Amino acid sequence: MSATKQHDINYHHLAELAWEKPKNVPPELRKLAEKSAGTGARRAPVTSGAIGFHSQISELPAGFKIPSHTHTAHELMVVLDGSCTVIDGPELLAGDLTEIPAGTEYGFVAGDDGIRFLVVRPEAATTKVSE
C-alpha cells in the first residue's frame, strides 16, 4: 500500500495502490481470486486499522459475479463508478452506498460498465463464501 504522510494525515493514492495477487489473498478467497485472474477483476487494501478503519478498493469487469458470502465485521460499501445488481436486491449506481451488518449474506453482479467500489469496516474481517 502506498501512503503519503504529512503530519498525522495519511494520503492514499489510487494509482499507487498495491493490487493483490491471487496467491496473496486470504485462504478463504483464493478460489475466487484464481477464478478472477485475467478478467480484470482486482482488489487492493487501502487502510488497515491505523485510526480504526479497514478499507479496500475493488474493480470488477462487466458481468463479474461476487458469489453469496458473509463477513465477520460490519461493512459500508460505496459504489465509486459503474454499477452492480445485488442478488435478490436492488441495483446500485455510482454514488450509492449500502450498510451490511456482519454475518449478513449477500452477493452481486457487476453492471454493463463494470464497477469500482470502496469497502470500509470498523475492524479486520474474514469472509465465508456460501457458493
Would you kindly provide a written description of the structure presented here, covering whatever features stand out?
With 131 residues, this protein is mainly beta. It has one domain (3-129): Jelly Rolls (Sandwich). It is 5% helix and 51% strand. It has one helix at residues 30-36, and strands spanning 3-6, 9-12, 42-48, 54-60, 65-71, 75-86, 91-93, 97-100, 106-121, 127-129. The strands form two sheets. Strands 3, 4, 5, 6, 7, 8, 9 and 10 form an eight-stranded antiparallel beta sheet that branches. A two-stranded antiparallel ribbon has the order 1-2. A hairpin with a 4-residue loop joins strand 6 and strand 7. It is globular, with a radius of gyration of 14 Å. The model has no long low-confidence stretch (mean pLDDT 91).
In short:
This protein is mainly beta and 131 residues long. It has one domain: Sandwich (Jelly Rolls). It is built from one helix and ten strands.
Distance separating the two termini: 30 Å
Total of DSSP H or I helical runs spanning 4+ residues: 1
CATH architecture: Sandwich
Question: What is the H/E string?
Answer: EEHEEEEEEEE
pLDDT average, as an integer?
Answer: 91
Principal-axis shape:
globular
Roughly what percent helix?
under 10%
CA gyration radius, whole angstroms = 14 Å
Poorly predicted regions: none
State the main characteristics.
131 residues, mainly beta, Jelly Rolls, eight-stranded antiparallel beta sheet, two-stranded antiparallel sheet
List strands and helices in order, with pairings:
Elements: E1 3-6, E2 9-12, H1 30-36, E3 42-48, E4 54-60, E5 65-71, E6 75-86, E7 91-93, E8 97-100, E9 106-121, E10 127-129
Antiparallel strand pairs: 1-2, 3-4, 4-9, 5-9, 5-10, 6-7, 6-8, 6-9
